[in-house]
Design goal:
49% of the residues lie in helices and 19% in strands. It is built from six helices and five strands, in the order E-H-E-H-E-H-E-H-H-E-H. The chain has helices spanning 14-29, 61-93, 107-118, 132-138, 141-148, 163-171, and strands at residues 4-9, 32-39, 98-104, 122-127, 152-157. Strand 2 (32-39), helix 2 and strand 3 (98-104) form a beta-alpha-beta unit. 28% of the residues are buried.
């Protein structure tokens, strides 16, 4: 049925549920899992642009901005890798063959490209529950993946009133 399942994860609380559902599926179909995290400005807390000053007559201003940007980016990169390693170890402990990768880019495009390159049979991805103008303005990764994926897509829906989504909305 499914030999290769790509599991798209972010660093939100929802990722645990996305992973658990993918793991549950894997226990019945015994596929190989590829856990994917995409470092992107679209993810919370990822610095999307460096703060550059038009006042370049202050020596070192650009260097300091670049240094702060890189420090924040490294923290997010390491947190993503730690999450992937934890989930991969959990899958391997359950006798599920799993590996992971962390890429940089636009999440929807990276997920679809990874699925194509890895010859995935299924993509498992969560949905934040955005709609209307919010979805239009910031986009929807799950919607992009659904319409551009080279294989089947299983979307884990988190209703807006779920405790996970409510907690995250309150934090914003």
């Amino acid at each position: 049925m499914f030999n290769k399942v790509l599991v798209a994860l972010d660093r939100s609380d929802r990722s645990q549920q996305v992973f658990e559902q993918a793991l549950g599926l894997a226990k019945f179909t015994s596929p190989n899992l590829m856990l994917l995290h995409v470092l992107s400005p679209e993810e919370d807390d990822i610095p999307d642009t460096m703060i550059l000053s038009p006042m370049d007559y202050y020596p070192g201003w650009g260097d300091e901005s670049m240094k702060r940007y890189m420090e924040k980016f490294e923290l997010r990169k390491n947190a993503g890798l730690q999450m992937l390693q934890t989930f991969c170890a959990e899958a391997n402990t359950a006798n599920i063959n799993a590996e992971f990768t962390q890429n940089v880019g636009s999440p929807g495009k990276v997920i679809c490209q990874m699925a194509k390159n890895w010859n995935a049979d299924l993509i498992v991805v969560g949905r934040r529950g955005l709609s209307g103008i919010t979805e239009f303005l910031i986009g929807s990764v799950s919607n992009y993946v659904l319409h551009h994926a080279p294989c089947s897509v299983h979307i884990i829906h988190f209703p807006i009133n779920s405790p996970i989504v409510e907690t995250q909305l309150n934090q914003e």
